[in-house]
# Entry
Amino acid sequence: MSRADPRRSGVRRGALLGALASAVLVQLVVLYAPSEPAPPPFPNADKVVHMGVFLVPTVLALAARLPARWVLPVLAAHAVLSEVVQATLIPTRDGDVLDALADLLGVALGALVAGLWARRRSGAPVRRW
# Structure
């Protein structure tokens, strides 16, 4: 099969969508579990986790060629809404503006990574800073 073979592309997209479903499931557990499973290993570790649980789904969704015009607003809205839910509906959790900012940073970085990856795969030159 050549690189442009539609069967190969379909298998790759299916794998990305499967990985996306897994990443979203992990995201939901991390954001909505009643309490944190263990004390953080270092200060602000939760911010790194928040960033990661939004970065990974963003990259996977965009790599699977889901429309960015839908993916980015939905994930950004979920970033903010998840903190409201934690603050108001989960008694053992607290909403945190800094967590929401870390989530939004994850979405932005995910979009950047996916864009650079797509550019590299297409053969377009990547700007060096």
